[in-house]
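Help: why these numbers?

___
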Amino acid sequence: MAVVGRVARPHGIRGQFFVNPDTDFPEKRFAVGASLVAMRGGCLETFVVTAFRMQGARPVIGVEGVADMDGARELAGLEFRVPVESLAALPEGTYYHHDLIGCTVVTVEGTTVGTVSRVEGDLRSTRLVVASERGEHLIPLVEAICTTIDPAARRIVIAPPDGLLDLNVRGI
């Protein structure tokens, strides 16, 4: 299952809530009638979207069975997922976040940097968060730095500018 968004907070008193989208297609993923799956209380639960609109860059949705602010508040933090096979094919050179998470990152010289733990940002400024023994490295996901991306081999080769791997280490 692929994560397509996370429930943020209630919006209004009728059980609707903001979703922080992890998809470039929120209009499709959160459309009225769409089914979303989330783990709640140790069980998988399916939610059917009953209301959808965009407010800025974030969807505001309602789901069956949630009729008030308290019900919406209980969903805060849930990750909505869809089956991977339902995802659209992406153009050459673009990747779903779940395809990159877990990839080993190495420099062009062959030095292992670490493993991608998550992907942050949006289409204009995406970065890989790479966990290493030194902490977390933030690597801009741009062609000039990420020279080879091979999700099938679970490997990303980078050509970091001088100082990048020392400049932005978090968690030391």
The chain is about 10% helix and 45% strand. The chain has two domains: 2-86, 97-170.
